[in-house]
Amino acid sequence: MVMKPSTLLIFLVGISLLTACSSKVVPTRSSNASKPYDLDLAAYRPRYEPSEVKKAPLEEKKKPTTPVTAPGSTSTQSINKKLDLTLDTLAQRNKGVRYLAGYRIQLYTGTKRADMEAAKLYIYQNYGELNTYIAYNHPTYRLRVGDFATRLDAERYFHKIKNEYPGSTLISDRVSLRDALKIIDNRATDTNETDEP
Which residues constitute the signal peptide according to the record (predicted)? Predict the structure, then answer.
């Protein structure tokens, strides 16, 4: 007896539906689950004996103590000498640092040199303390302004410049440490002038 493919298909679908809808067997509790746990583990628990706490008498005055040095340890003077030596080596290393990760304001990005020169002139006239940096990658001009060590300084100038050039953006860049310190000094003198009546 040979069945037609459509009949065979209907038969297989019916069988699979019947097996899929059959009830699942749910495991029942084991026979040990109904018994309470009665194993005594007290023999394995750690035991702590209470000890007496010594209290210092309240009537005694505290005497000034001198630092106690352990046998074989160095005195405080030699520690200071080591610290001074370490600080001197760090100062010598820092003298060689010329650049740091900071921020600049990208004032102009476009293909027109005249617009870029106008933006540069605006910065020179209104913000003489800021340096300008021109990058040209054919055919795009990019004008970046300032050497800011902190984002706070960069945002202070950015909000002033954004009114005139709304397309400007704040970017992270490698900046000159010397010029960044000049901007920080300008900020300090500006706050001192506003504090005085």
Answer: 1-20
